[in-house]
Amino acid sequence: MGLLPGIVPVKAAFSAVSALVRAARPGRGDFAGQLRESVEARFMAHFDADKNGTVTPDEFPGEPASFRRWDRNGDGGVTSAEARLEMTLISDAARARKAAQESWDLHDADRDGRLTRAEAGLTKKELSALDTDADGTLGTREWFAARGLKEGQ
Questions:
Q1: Residue 147 DSSP code
Q2: What pLDDT digit, counting tens, does each position of 83-104 carry?
Q3: Which among 45, 18, 24, 40 has a CA at the least distance from the CA of 85?
Q4: 29-94 — its CATH code?
């Protein structure tokens, strides 16, 4: 079996995944983009009941306010392109939220739910600008707000 018996199965698995990725993106394709397009196609197939190329308010699975956000041009129907855009924005927001949370976890060394100036690595002036409740520390609400996010968003 060789000196490192686990290497062959791992290498075979990596090769299989690499082949799938190459197959999913011919040429210079974008794997994440193609995955979004696949999700978008399933969204349209599932919710566009009359198969006219748009999801109407009656077909849309969410609240009216959500529909208005998805219907970017306000024509009363969510097209495939609008669905793709909204899914991209949702994906980007999730990545931003995850990055902010990971950054918080990294900085909150004592895990007390507050960042001191030293933990945050900020000057007094920088801390003061972000410290909206003027308690001399940053809470998660202030940390996320500084990144344009709402806590729990």
A1: T
A2: 888 888 888 888 888 888 999 9
A3: 40
A4: 1.10.238
